[in-house]
């Protein structure tokens, strides 16, 4: 019933501003707004320091970690009242409204806590948020197996006269709530329903444990690494800490060392993954599905794992010759730059694809970054959204206690006719204990409230960008810029997917459609007509542009995800499956004593659905070719807005 809660990157595109106008007219413009580009290339304006703390995201209870307990109790009390109301209300549209209020009451706390538990720099906040996630998650699973609550919805769906009188959106939302009951095991006897709840709670705990482990650094005695490369990594006493793959580093040895150390197997993380996959399979079979993939793909465009594998194998076959050619060119380039060690390895692919791109456009890779200061890229996004959607981004001053870190920026999203649409918090910079993962989090979904006002959506975009220095602002590599555009696509989806019900608002839709707006933004990030508008050297003002796409790697990830969530027990270890899949679908050799799957954090939020990136890319490609390839796309004739609105 409440599957929309607690997704970091969930899902649907109603990308044009065509739904609810905010109830009572255009929202007023704030005098605290300032130009977006300057806000990112200049030093952050401090939050207001006087007065009482507003709490995280303006939630008064969250001025301290203890406030999560209070917020949780309020949500659970409201939930209890709404459940009683739902069970005593006769069939009609009011039932759907109550269910959506119930979903919103829990999601407003669960979604916020889901972000805080991994991103807040204060351990006490993270711990309190994690406990709240677990308690709200347990309540969600109990509600999804509540017979009396389900019966009230069944009575509505069985009443043909009432159902025929409902508008299409309300009918769809009612059916989606019933779908959530069904995949949670509402049809089971009491004992099995309790087992399903227990399994779901266990899976929540394992997901959290796996996510934490996926981002933990690996340490190694610094004497093991050659002295001349140690400065590339963080040093703690006698140890070197490896926090990522250093994929953009020009030194082959640095990339190799990072790859082998960061991906070295961790026995506890391996046990966690195996237990997670096994528990998911047990849950799926308990509620009536052959595999977890069969359960997860219900309600998606693909529908079955068989169709997903057919799609992936067909795509892999079509990419085969192109991938071979790409690898041959990269190996040739590596031979030219490093003749003593010219074999192409997995740690080479991202770097040498960038080198080839630079050679094609006659630009030195090291000269990319000065063209893409973070402020310039944000101005580019502002320009693009204004041209396409009549939207402007403004930096807004924050209140005391509203932020979890001083370098977070808050953006107001403003439409030329509708006014204020919502807020984006930009948590873009690296810091200790922050996951190295680019992500979009829904903090609060949009919905039409009973008083006629529209509840404005609030989201967080989390990146891992370097801080500015004394001599330059934050400068982005091509990959960083593409990721920024991708995540802003999710944010715009959340702002513009305005629906009556929060259960289907913004990105809450089938996962294999959720990536369409974000991948469409990647096309804009690589289009010279867009990039030339803002890619100015932060000192000279010259401009540049680029393209990148490693599709074979995405196919490998997606196939691996399907195999892990297919038939159980698995016939081989997760590492053996990875080795075989990598060599068949990716083409570069497996590196012994590595376990990349233990860093594959998408297995949590995108379990059995990683193919969504590729299927959404196919749809985004069609949209791009239909609406934006022609030179006149900036003419603002309305065709593009119509195309986006019907996605």
From TrEMBL:
Chief location: mitochondrion
Matches recorded under InterPro entries: M3A_MIP, MetalloPept_cat_dom_sf, Neurolysin/TOP_dom2, Pept_M3A_M3B, Pept_M3A_M3B_dom
An annotated Gene Ontology molecular function: metal ion binding
Domain Peptidase M3A/M3B catalytic: 246-630
GO biological process terms, semicolon-separated: peptide metabolic process; protein processing involved in protein targeting to mitochondrion
Similarity comment: family membership: Belongs to the peptidase M3 family.
PANTHER family attached to this UniProt entry: MITOCHONDRIAL INTERMEDIATE PEPTIDASE (PTHR11804:SF79), PROTEASE M3 THIMET OLIGOPEPTIDASE-RELATED (PTHR11804)
Name recorded for this polypeptide: Mitochondrial intermediate peptidase-like
Species of provenance: Terrapene triunguis
């Amino acid at each position: 019933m409440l599957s929309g809660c607690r997704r970091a990157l969930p899902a649907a595109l109603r990308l044009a501003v065509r739904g609810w106008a905010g109830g009572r007219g255009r929202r007023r413009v704030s005098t605290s707004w300032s130009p977006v580009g300057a806000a990112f290339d200049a030093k952050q304006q401090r939050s207001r320091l006087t007065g009482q703390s507003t709490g995280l995201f303006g939630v008064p209870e969250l001025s301290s970690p203890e406030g999560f307990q209070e917020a949780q109790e309020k949500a659970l009390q409201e939930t209890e009242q709404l459940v009683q109301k739902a069970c005593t209300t006769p069939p009609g549209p009011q039932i759907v409204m109550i269910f959506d209020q119930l979903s919103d009451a829990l999601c407003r706390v669960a979604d916020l806590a889901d972000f805080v538990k991994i991103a807040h720099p204060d351990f006490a906040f993270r711990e309190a948020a994690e406990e709240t996630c677990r308690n709200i998650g347990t309540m969600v699973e109990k509600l999804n197996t509540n017979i009396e609550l389900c019966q009230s919805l069944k009575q509505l769906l069985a009443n043909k006269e009432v159902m025929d009188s409902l508008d299409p959106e309300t009918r769809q939302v009612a059916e989606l709530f019933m779908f959530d009951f069904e995949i949670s095991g509402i049809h089971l006897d009491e004992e099995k329903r309790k087992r399903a709840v227990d399994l779901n709670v266990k899976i929540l705990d394992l997901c959290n444990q796996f996510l934490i482990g996926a981002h933990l650094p690996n340490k190694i005695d610094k004497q093991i690494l050659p002295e001349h490369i140690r400065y590339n990594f963080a040093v703690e006493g006698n140890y070197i800490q490896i926090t990522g793959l250093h994929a953009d580093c020009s030194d082959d040895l640095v990339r190799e060392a990072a790859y082998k150390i960061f991906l070295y197997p961790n026995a506890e993380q391996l046990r966690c993954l195996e237990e997670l996959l096994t528990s998911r399979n047990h849950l799926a079979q308990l509620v009536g599905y052959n595999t977890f993939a069969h359960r997860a793909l219900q309600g998606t465009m693909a529908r079955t794992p068989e169709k997903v594998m057919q799609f992936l194998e067909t795509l892999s076959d079509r990419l085969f010759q192109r991938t071979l050619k790409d690898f041959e060119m990269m190996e040739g380039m590596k031979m030219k730059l490093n003749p003593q060690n010219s074999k192409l390895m997995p740690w080479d692919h991202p770097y040498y694809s960038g080198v080839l791109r630079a050679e094609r456009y006659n630009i030195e890779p090291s000269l990319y970054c000065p063209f893409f200061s973070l402020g310039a890229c944000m101005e580019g996004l502002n320009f693009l959204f204004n041209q396409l959607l009549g939207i402007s981004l403004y930096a807004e001053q924050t209140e005391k206690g509203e932020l979890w870190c001083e370098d977070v920026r808050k953006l107001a999203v403003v439409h030329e006719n509708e006014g204020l649409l919502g807020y984006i918090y930009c948590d873009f910079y690296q810091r200790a204990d922050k996951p190295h993962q680019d992500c979009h989090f829904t903090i609060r979904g949009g919905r039409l409230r009973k008083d006629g006002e529209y509840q404005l959506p609030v989201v967080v975009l989390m990146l891992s960008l370097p801080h500015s220095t004394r001599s330059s602002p934050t400068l982005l590599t091509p990959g960083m810029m593409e990721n920024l555009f991708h995540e802003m696509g999710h944010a715009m989806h959340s702002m513009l997917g305005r629906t009556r019900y929060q259960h289907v608002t913004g990105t809450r839709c089938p996962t294999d459609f959720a990536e369409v707006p974000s991948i469409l933004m990647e096309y804009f990030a690589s289009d010279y007509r867009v990039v030339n508008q803002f890619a100015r050297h932060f000192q000279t003002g010259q401009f540049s542009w680029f393209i990148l796409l490693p599709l074979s790697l995405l196919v490998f990830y997606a196939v691996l995800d399907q195999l892990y969530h297919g038939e159980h027990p698995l016939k081989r270890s997760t590492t053996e499956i990875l080795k075989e899949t990598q060599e068949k679908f990716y083409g570069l050799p497996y590196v012994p004593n590595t376990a990349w799957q233990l860093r594959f954090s998408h297995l949590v939020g995108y379990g059995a659905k990683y193919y969504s990136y590729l299927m959404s890319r196919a749809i985004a490609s069609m949209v791009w070719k239909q609406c934006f390839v022609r030179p006149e796309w900036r003419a603002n004739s309305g065709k593009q807005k119509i195309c986006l609105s019907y996605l």
